[in-house]
Write a structure and sequence with these properties.
mainly alpha
């Protein structure tokens, strides 16, 4: 199995597991075994999982930086939903602008760490 097919297989596996977990959770909610309202506030952590999925075994620099971005958004949204450190959408939206700037600054450094042919091969 080459790197590209392994990456695609892992992405498909993670998406399948996420869909199964959501389905099982909804079935358990309908059966009144689990209250979805109690666990719904963890939804931003799905973005963190998806970001980690993009970063592990990453075939290109773009996948890696997009994984970092998804992880940041997931953690930021989780902090907002949980009101950690007093964060709300109203007072914390500038963090998104700062993170976007950081992503733009570090992207060339991350691209320099990857082989140039892998970026061209995987661009579609």
């Amino acid at each position: 199995m080459n790197t590209d097919s392994t990456y695609e297989w892992r992405r498909q596996l993670v998406w399948g597991i996420i869909i199964i977990v959501i389905g099982v959770t909804l079935v358990l909610d309908r059966m009144e075994i689990v209250e979805v309202d109690e666990i719904w506030h963890y939804w931003p952590l799905l973005l963190v999982v998806l970001g980690m999925n993009k970063m592990v075994g990453y075939p290109t620099a773009r996948h890696f930086t997009n994984g970092l971005w998804l992880m940041f958004l997931g953690l930021w949204l989780f902090a907002v939903v949980e009101h950690l450190y007093g964060l709300t959408l109203h007072n914390s939206w500038p963090f998104v602008i700062i993170a976007l700037g950081v992503k733009i600054v570090i992207e060339p450094f991350i691209k320099a760490r990857f082989a140039p042919h892998s970026e061209i091969r995987n661009e579609k």
